[in-house]
């Protein structure tokens, strides 16, 4: 319920994570959860703001805990990184997403590009590229139906290794976007050399765009100049949509359109859109 936590989920409080004994217990529970499919995929639709079409989805991890209920990723993703389990978690997300897309395909539904958040340890993990291509083949899904979202922080750090991995993924047809774009305080020169397709404007700038549209406007023109696509995240109202469209941003996701939903609910969105 809404009162319980920042994202409307009950969650392990910060103070609980400070407690050493509780912490070890939580770590073990998280390992168990990753091994036993207790981390599930929620999907948030992405839309074309000009024609209103559903164009894709972002997959977001949820921990369905047996006693704590749904736990938000802001709590367990950093923990998974800390204990070295993030690559297993994200590989499971990739498997789940490909499985869901494959099921819809078999049912004759129209499938859309779905993005997955990928962290640095996962991207650089030995065998990651093989794992991805194998998972695509196994599920008979074309690489163009996947997009990987990586944060600006990742891109700034390990330029050469990261870029070669990104190139291999793009060779499979997978698109790459830079998540939370604009929050990394980096020099922008890296964008010229980088193997990416899209910038994802961080919610922070979307929040401000009605009062001050300068940052959003700059990001959109920069994307245009570099031949990159652009999407706005965290869109919550019509004023924001009006400004973003005026500035030439076409794609968006946010609570205005839909919250992230379980895949069964997303399937109904697909239905509504195909009969509309
Ligand atoms: P993110 O990648 O920036 O994902 C967007 C977050 O913003 C999601 O929160 C989503 O529910 C929320 N959001 C979307 N639209 C709106 C809106 O209009 N208003 C507001 N207030 N919020 C909106 P969520 O699902 O709690 O995820 C939080 C973060 O957890 C994600 O931020 C991402 O960094 C991380 N995360 C989730 N799943 C994974 C994963 O599998 N791997 C990694 N590395 N990170 C993940
Ligand atoms: Ca993301
Ligand atoms: Ca984001
Ligand atoms: Ca964000």
Structure write-up:
Residues 23-274 form the EAL domain. This is EAL domain-containing protein. The protein is of the alpha/beta class. 47% of the residues lie in helices and 20% in strands. It contains 13 helices and 10 strands. It has helices at 14-18, 20-35, 73-82, 86-106, 120-123, 128-138, 152-157, 159-171, 190-193, 203-208, 214-226, 238-246, 263-275, and strands spanning 39-48, 54-65, 69-71, 113-117, 146-151, 175-181, 198-201, 229-232, 251-252, 261-262. Strands 1-2-4-5-6-7-8-9 form an 8-stranded mixed barrel, surrounded by 4 helices. A hairpin with a 3-residue loop joins strand 2 and strand 3 (69-71). Helix 4 runs parallel beside helix 6 (128-138). It is globular and about 50 Å long. Residues 1-10 have low confidence and may be disordered. It binds ligand C2E and calcium ion (CA) (3 copies). One calcium ion binds at residues 58, 117, 149, 179.
- Low-pLDDT windows of residues: 1-10
Mass-distribution shape:
globular
* Biggest sheet details: 8 strands, mixed, barrel
Strand order of the largest sheet: 1-2-4-5-6-7-8-9
Helix content: 40-55%
Find the structural class using helix and strand composition: alpha/beta
CA-CA gap between termini: 32 Å
The number of distinct helices, counting runs of at least 4 residues, comes to 13
Ions, cofactors and other bound molecules: ligand C2E, calcium ion
Order of helices and strands: HHEEEHHEHHEHHEHEHHEHEEH
Residues in β-strands, percent:
15-25%
- Average pLDDT over all residues: 90
Number of strands: 10
As a whole number of angstroms, the C-alpha radius of gyration is 19 Å
């Amino acid at each position: 319920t809404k009162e319980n936590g920042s994202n409307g989920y009950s969650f392990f409080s910060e103070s609980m994570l400070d407690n050493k004994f509780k912490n070890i217990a939580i770590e073990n529970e998280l390992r168990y959860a990753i091994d036993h499919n207790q981390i599930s995929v929620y999907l948030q639709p992405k839309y074309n703001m000009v024609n209103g079409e559903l164009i894709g989805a972002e997959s977001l991890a949820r921990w369905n805990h047996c006693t704590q209920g749904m736990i938000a990723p802001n709590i367990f993703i950093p923990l998974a990184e800390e204990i070295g389990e993030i690559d297993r978690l994200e590989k499971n997300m990739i498997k789940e997403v490909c499985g869901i897309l494959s099921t819809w395909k078999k049912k004759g539904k129209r499938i859309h590009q779905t993005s997955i958040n990928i962290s640095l340890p996962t991207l650089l993990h030995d065998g990651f590229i093989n794992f991805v291509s194998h998972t695509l083949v196994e599920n008979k899904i074309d690489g163009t139906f996947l997009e990987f979202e990586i944060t600006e922080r990742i891109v700034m750090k390990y330029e050469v290794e990261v870029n070669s991995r990104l190139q291999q993924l793009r060779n499979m047809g997978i698109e790459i976007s830079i998540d939370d774009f604009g929050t990394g305080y980096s020099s922008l020169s890296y964008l010229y050399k980088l193997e990416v397709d899209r910038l994802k404007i961080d919610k922070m700038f979307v929040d401000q765009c009605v009062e001050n549209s300068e940052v959003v406007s700059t990001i959109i023109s920069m994307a245009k100049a570099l031949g990159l696509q652009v999407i706005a995240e965290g869109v919550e109202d019509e004023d924001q949509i009006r400004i973003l469209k005026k500035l030439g941003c076409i794609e968006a996701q946010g609570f205005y359109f839909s919250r992230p939903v379980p895949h069964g609910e997303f399937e109904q969105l697909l239905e509504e859109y195909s009969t509309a």
